[in-house]
Amino acid sequence: MLIAYVILFIVFPAPAIYLCYRFPAVNKIGVVILCYLAGIIMGNAGVLPSGFEAVQKNLSEVSVVLALPLLLYSMDIRKWSRLAGRTILSFGLATLAIIVIAFIGYFIIKAARPDAWKLAGLAIGVYTGGTPNLAAIKAALDVDATTFIIFHTYDTVISLIYIIFCVTVAQRFFLLFLPPFTSKNGSAGNLGDDLEAEDIHRYGGMLKKKYLLPLGGAFLLTVLVVAFSVSVGSLVHANYTTTVIILLITTLGIALSFVPKIRSIDKTFQLGMYIIYIFCLTVGSMANFSVIIHIEWSVLFYVFFCITASMALHAILCRFFKVDTDTFIITSVSAICSPPFVPVVAYGLKNREVIISGITTGIIGYAIGNYLGISLAYLFRGF
Asked: Which helix (H) or strand (E) holds 270?
């Protein structure tokens, strides 16, 4: 039974892609949102078998590490290297924003929640890094298991809404007061022909022999990259294993993109995105609404406040420092939702140029999230 559901999760993005390919109206919704919605429905309709939670966790982790190299192989790194300065600035502003907002929120709820300082540590860790930081900070601060589950559930649900906002209307909204992204060819906005090569129609013909054999080679190379990275990551302390693994996978994916034969393999980006769709479906299915039947209003408010208010403050700071819209959005996503969501949002923005920048800043977030979350939690407790 478990195997059947794993196969369902792996196969499901294919009909979702076909629907978007076949019907323009469905394509306006997008494969990402279709996968999220389907996952949420499956996860809360009681159809998943008992014990599937471990499968969901493993499937989400495996899909992430397999997708990242495939998304990077076709990248022309030299073309986007000049993005680093404004990207680091924007990520720094995002980090500052969540620290300020988490501090303000701490004072708002601390009368109702004696453990508010722990919630602040969780928020700072997860909204600069990601779920691995959340788990590490839970252990470091001895967060109650029930509180952690509630926090993580609210974070998952609200983050899904945030992601949907980012891939749909965020770009148009923030362009009202932030400058547009300027491509390296000097044009503002989208990437033109380079991006058109990555639209939904590029999935056509992937199973043909001329594409399938090279893609099989690229996938095998990816498995070797992941195996090597996991082997090296297992040598470090458990708290840093995930960070080391993702850092190595990203580094090797970037390094291999400099090899012309690898960079020229067609449709590696599409294969990587397909695996990301599996990730989206799996994450959606992990949003367990049964936990929030009895709503912890203070925790719900705190999570909602941290995500929305930090994004708003980040946007204000980016306006002051003249950071463009796409860089603002992608660094906000890399901070609040971590690197796996970067390709999803970049695809929604129709701007592949920001993928490397978003993943890079997300890796930095993984590295600093634990330090910031733990140290600032104890600092807040002093107040």
From this structure: helix 268-285
